[in-house]
Amino acid sequence: MSERAKSMLNHRLFWPVAVLVVMLVANTVYRPGFLSIEVNNGHLYGTPIDILRLSAPLILVALGMTLVISTGGIDLSVGSTCAISGAIACLYISRAPDQNNLVTVFTALAMALGVALALGAWNGVLVSVIGIQPIIATLILMVAGRGLAQLVTEGQIITINSGPFRAIGLGHFLTLPLAIFIALGAALLIAGLTRRTALGMIVESVGGNREASRLAGIRSARIVFLVYVVSAACAAIAGFMMTANVSSADGNNTGLWVELDAILAVVIGGTSLAGGRFYLSGTILGALIIQTLTTTVYAMNISPQTALLFKAVVVIAVCLIQAPAFRAKFSRRGRGTPPPPTPSPQRQKEEVPA
Amino acid sequence: MTDSRPVLTMTGISKSFPGVRALHNVDFRLFPGEVHALMGENGAGKSTLIKVLTGVYGIDAGTITLSGEQVAFSGPMQASAAGVSTVYQEVNLCPNLSVAENIFIGREPRRFGAVHWGEVRRRARQLLARLDLDIDVTAPVASYSLAVQQMVAIARAIDVQAQVLILDEPTSSLDAGEVAQLFRIMRQLRDEGIAILFVTHFLDQVYGIADRITVLRNGTLVGEYPTAELPQLALVEKMIGKELDVLEGIEEHSRRDLAALEDGTPFVEVSQLSRKGAVAPFSLTIHAGEVVGLAGLLGSGRTEVARLFFGADRADRGEVAVSGKPAGLRNPVQAIERGIGFCSENRRAEGIIPDLSVRENMILAMQASRGWLRPIPRRRQDELVEQYIKALSIRPANPDVPVRNLSGGNQQKVLLARWLITEPRLLILDEPTRGIDVGAKAEIQKLVAQLSDGGMAVLFISAELEEVLRLSHKVAVMRDREMVAQLSNDDTVDADRVMQTIASGTPREEATR
Q1: Which of A239, A299, B345, B476 would bridge A82 by S-S if both were Cys, CB 3.0 to 4.6 A apart?
Q2: What order do you get walking across the sheet with B61-66 strand by strand?
């Protein structure tokens, strides 16, 4: 194998990209029109565009989750935060005299975002100041947040009819869905904030060894607090998209289980759940893989009963392919090496160059 | 003894990790019925060689032959089944299980499919009797001393008809009597024909027991020698690969007059500083260019004093003044702002960030004090890092490898570099030379001497009295969480006197203050 091919194979994004490509190819074989894109009314339409548009909320949530996981934490409350922020925005707009008024919509978004930031700060205080384990601290809001969202909507589904709000989910800009640009913008903003400054390294340092970071003069608690706030802000914007897609807020179902997909996207992207190094581009790929998988399930007409199982099998395969230990085992066997527990001296002599 | 055929032969072994060449073309032989010492500095490749042998790592090139047959173990279990057993430095037993359970865990004798407990206990007693150890095999391992635990680990290792017994720094936590007991057992096993591979940092132990010595340096083989033909000095030279003047040079480190130093302005003055449960009120003044040594036994409060100076812990009461101005020192950030740096004794837990690269670990403290909004330009980072890799001869000299791939001594140097980059005015070094080899130790001592000559104040903590006395202008003695004396390090002070002070709690004759 040439050096170049080897270094490509060892690149941490190689396997996520390969999985995505394989999925797209499989879809195209199954349904030749899968990759086709048409222009209609000055907008681009087609399955690839749909995948991008639908993955936008997940990308947003997963970006925030990446930073949280990098500090060694986890944020289970993002789904609830999506629901609460969506509900608050819809509630405000539904009560306004003119739902299409831009000022109204922006006020609604600002209010909802403000509440989400407060929720993130709550998580941040629980984890960084009080020192509760992240999984428990955010579980509180995950459960209580659904109730909070129900309180906001008074148990009803709030339906609105607001053009500007709807545009967040379904609008177009430069022929492409606006949601793609929002997700891309958030990604660039977070990438710029972390990689153009020293913030990324400091977050990784806190995740790698919190006490050592404190003794090196990093205000570790502040950094931990900050990532939960960022995560909540990302979740809020994702919540706007989710509710805008359907022009209604449902306290029970908006963003349900999105935290699990987001964690999965982060892990597929190569960030360790133990904290430390984080990879934003990997996370985005992970989110695209998950959305492509969901779309594939629908496109292949897999019955809803087996859809989840199908998804699970693919996810297990993706995770195994990414695990170096598994690949090493697989490729060794592929070369005809005897399995380890039965070392016959003769065969080993063949393979170890003297 | 060594005229028979070797039981184990390793030929042309090479092994690399990303960015690090751990072993390069190393040969190693082990004869039945010998104790063979494997020597080398930290990072020389001793542990890697053992791990390659026992199948923890695969090899990139080379062959391993055991009793005439070529082998490649897939892991320690398989290696021990084939007769190669290892006892590691840190005792690898389950403390809450009984002695007998620990010996037979994973290979319990069975009857009708169930564990035959009677047999387990009987055979455990038998095995320990072979080692002259008469203890209750049903008691939990944790109830015995470290030495006994080490013996239990050895009993476990030799039960499997071992031909080769690897002892990886078995003595580092044992006292002299326990070492003697271990050596007696090693000799007994050797006489039974077992080949023992012995790794240690203690030179006298090598000369006390080893028949032959193999020396590694930087992942390559230096040579194999009969112990009788290799004088101690020659061994050290072969290990560190340079003349010993490094160590001797430090002895000549000019001890400038303490009086002259104390005429200068004090850098830090603390008075009646204390923290409940950690350290009783103490007062100490450190001047620019002064090395203050902290001596005392483990647990005497040395580290606690250092942590108060750095704000790692908060003092309950007392005053601190830095450069004559009152200062809070309530957290590390405040201490760093005032020019104080702190290398913790606990490298792993409180020092390195294992995932981050050597470069990132080095610039961390400087970056933290600048704030995240002002990243250090990449070019400046590269300059600084290259400068310190060279100055401290950090190996491998590659700034981009994760710091966890470095050996202990090199990690320590990276931490030193982290603080030196911040150009501190007071550097607190808590056991900077613990667990690292002679060469790195000498380099670090030399560095401390140089820094103080350059005007930096140093608070130096070490369990080794000689090291403290060699470097310090003033020695503060700790006992039972109390600072009992401050001795000016002149001709009247030697290790005996410091030890007496530690023992009696009062300085004999005149203390400096």
Answers
A1: A239
A2: B20-30, B8-17, B61-66, B69-71
| pLDDT given for residue A342 in this prediction | 36
pLDDT of residue B237: 75
Distance CA(B447)–CA(B441), nearest Å, equals 10
| Structure-token match 């084939």, residue found | B82
Minimum mean pLDDT range among A90-104, A248-262, B13-27: B13-27
Residue B226's alpha-carbon distances to A20, B31, B37, B41, B324, in angstroms, are: 61, 12, 10, 19, 60
Q: Which of B210, B165, B216 is nearest to B49 (CA)?
A: B216
Per the model's pLDDT, the better-predicted residue between A80 and A316 turns out to be A80
| pLDDT tens digit sequence for A136-187 | 999 999 999 999 999 999 999 999 999 999 999 898 898 899 999 999 999 9
Q: For residues B253 and B446, what is the distance between their CA atoms, to the nearest angstrom?
A: 8
Which residue, among B73, B367, B401, would best test binding to A if mutated, counting the most A CBs under 10 Å from its CB?
Answer: B367
In a domain, B1, yes or no: no
Using CB atoms and an 8 Å cut-off, which of residues 311-330 of chain B contact chain A? 312
Share of chain A above pLDDT 90, in %: 66
Instruction: Give the type of residue at A231.
Output: S
Mean pLDDT, chain A, as a whole number?
88
Write down the pTM of the prediction.
0.74
Task: State whether A213 and B353 contact (CB < 8 Å).
Answer: yes
From the list A52, A14, A2, the residue with the least C-alpha distance to A282 is A14
Please count the residue pairs, one from chain A and one from chain B, whose beta carbons lie less than 8 angstroms apart: 97
Residue A198 has pLDDT above 90, yes or no: yes
Q: Residue B2: inside a domain, yes or no?
A: no
Q: Which residue positions in chain B have pLDDT lower than 70?
A: 1-3, 19, 42-43, 89-91, 160, 172-176, 240-262, 298-299, 435, 505-513
Helices (H), B330-437: 332-337, 347-350, 358-370, 378-391, 408-421
Looking at per-residue pLDDT, the higher value among A316 and B366 belongs to: B366
C-alpha pair distances (Å), A326 with each of A265, A321, A323, B54, B132? 20, 7, 5, 21, 46
User: Any idea what DSSP says for residue A125?
Assistant: I
Q: Which two tokens stand for residue B201?
A: 């940092």
Instruction: Convert B381-401 to b/e letters by CB count within 10 Å (16 or more is b).
Output: beebbeebbeebebbbebbeb
Q: Torsion-angle region of residue A271: left (phi > 0), alpha (psi -120 to 50) or beta?
A: beta
Domain of B382?
Answer: 351-423
DSSP annotation of A82: H
Of the candidates B459, B451, B463, B455, which has an alpha carbon nearest to the alpha carbon of residue B495? B463
- Which one of B63, B336, B353 has the shortest CB-CB distance to A212? B353
Res. A82: pLDDT tops 90: yes
For residue A324, what is the enclosing H or E element?
Answer: helix A324-334
Q: Identify whether residues B258 and B373 lie together within a single domain.
A: no
Residues B465 and B318 in one domain: yes
Residue B269 one-letter amino acid: E
CATH number of the domain residue B149 falls in: 3.40.50.300
How many angstroms separate the CA atoms of B172 and B179, rounded? 9
The answer, yes or no, to whether residue A338 has pLDDT greater than 50, is no
Q: Is A49 exposed, middle or buried (0-12, 13-18, 19+ CB in 10 A)?
A: middle
Q: Are residues B45 and B165 in the same domain?
A: yes
Provide the β-strand partners of residue B23.
Answer: B15
Report the run of H or E that residue A103 belongs to, with start and end: helix A102-124
Question: Do the Cβ atoms of A198 and B375 come within 8 Å?
Answer: yes
Cα A78 to Cα A74, A75, A109, A136, A280, distances in angstroms: 10, 6, 17, 14, 18
Tell me if the domain spanning A58-323 has CATH number 1.10.3470. Answer: yes
Nearest Cα residue in chain B from A10: B18
Q: Which contacts qualify for A46-51: CB closer than 8 Å, 24 or more apart?
A: A47/A295, A47/A299, A49/A176, A49/A177, A50/A295, A51/A288, A51/A291, A51/A292, A51/A295
Q: Contact A198/B372, CB-based, under 8 Å?
A: yes
